[in-house]
Amino acid sequence: MSWPNVQDAIDSVVQPAGYRCELLRRSEIAPLIAALATWFPGIAVGTASCYLRETFYSDKVLFEDATDRDIIVLVAKTGNDLVGMVSYERDRDCAVLYGRVVAVSQQHRRSGLGETLALLQEAVARAIGMGMTYVLATLSSPYIQLMAEKHGWHLFGIVPGFDRELLTSGEVKRVYEAVYCKVLVPDEELLRPRAENLTAKTRALFDLLFPGKVVE
Fold this sequence. Notes:
27% of the residues lie in helices and 30% in strands. By secondary structure, the chain is α+β, with helices and mostly antiparallel strands. A 7-stranded mixed β-sheet has the order 1-2-3-4-5-7-6, with helices on both faces. It is globular. 27% of the residues are buried.
């Protein structure tokens, strides 16, 4: 099952002048790994550390000659230079797209490129027919939180200890992360919970996150 309309999704998002986004090529794996270690030093530990291993790309990532894969990597370039990347993973069974990692070279973080990479997630999810898309945003930096909230993503929880981060001190800590989602199907396609099926704590949280959605 290939990824349909990905290039159309990329083209639908306005990119800053002088930049372009495209699918990662096999010849760019090693340069991207080297760049990631500089752009995002904390990637050395935790769930995103796989992006520093060549075998991860060769075994898991979509390429033009390997389209039946569930992880996609898009790179941002200016000229022939790699200056950013974003990666998503789809769950075919539930039609959900997960934003795994985004990274931008420090020299290009005020260009608007980071926002472009964030917007691409929704565009790609819609293009390939996903029903929902989500991302985990570390609470050690506000950037992804700000981007998600600016573009109408819904904060629906805080996950404690799911991932690890490498601190500037060299210490590794498990972190809190905010979970943001955007539902891409009409509201009537969501099965609303009935009040009798919720505990008091679940009801209180649900009412806070989704007011008026419980069926009495």
